[in-house]
Amino acid sequence: MRTWLSDHVKDRLSTFGLIVPSIAQCAVGAALAWVIARELLGHPQPFFAPISVLICVGIGLGQRLRRVVELVVGVSLGVGVGDLLVSWIGSGPWQIALVVALAMTIAGLLDSGALFVAQAGSSAVLVATLVPGAGAGGLDRMLDALTGGLIGIAAVALLPASPFAIAAKHLSGVLDALSTVLERAAEAIEKRDVDLAAEALEEARGTQAAVEEFEQALETSKEITMISPLHWHRRARLARYETAAQPVDLALRNARVLSRRTLASLGEASPPPAALAEAMREVSEAALLLQLELGAGREPTLAQQALLAVAARERPEQLGFSAHVIIAQLRSVVVDLLQATGMEHAEATAALTPLDDKAGRE
């Protein structure tokens, strides 16, 4: 229990470290938007300016540039339409219904994105219910929202989270999952343990969420390097993560098939040999080595060498059907991880020990 609690605290602190820049962006951006709207634009109560900053920046890691733009325009549209209508027709239940319907209709005609439409509607609700007749014109509040949105984008550019920390953390989760699946499958084969094989399969089935989180984090990281001058000169480092993204996803898909067949193989007359478990464990270690090298900003040469050593190994003889399938999937995982290190598919495939020649000697 104590170990679990300690690991949980460490994980939460690590995650919090990633969102600290977003918190700073919100805090600094909100204050700056208020000052600009009040002092430079002359708006006495420009509360939509800091609100727009918070909406556009948020504290999530999944922000995308298109999403930020949708939020900025959606807020501005909702505020403008809502405030102009409320100044004419007043505030009340039917007025709220009309304002929301009109704002969302205009937003839907401009852009079918659900976020854009919803943001326009929610901003119109704020105007119609919280600030009717507050003395400021609709165009002023629209300008406040636009100001806050632009400040939010500037805050992301000038106070950015580390794109490499974001990508490294989420790729680490993917490669950890892959390593765990292979390790448990190897242990199941060594111990002839069906329960361990079932655990490996269950672990493998739950890995897609980690892949999707990594893909989203990678998009966030790419956008940070695109809009932030502080990271323009370091795009090459992030390119290693882009290279690894699809091959690692494929490796996990192949690992799912491998773990499913591992469970089936333990019920056969000739279960997989221990040598196959050893190869699984070596690939598992190579995945962790890839994680460490990418995290350190190095070319993953050591991981590549470890994978090439596994690829060149002769396959065991006298195998059952399931063991043949396991070997085929493990070879696919090796090719996928070699591609994640930057190797071309043809070169990675050529590194494998040919099956035909071996089959001819059997």
Automatic annotation (TrEMBL):
Keywords: Membrane, Transmembrane, Transmembrane helix. It is found in: Membrane. It holds the Pfam family FUSC_2. Residues 32-154 form the Integral membrane bound transporter domain. Its main location: membrane. One of its GO terms (cellular component) is membrane. It is a multi-pass membrane protein. The chain crosses the membrane at residues 12-37, 43-61, 68-90, 96-117, 149-168. InterPro entries: Memb_transporter_dom (IPR049453). This is Uncharacterized membrane protein YgaE (UPF0421/DUF939 family).
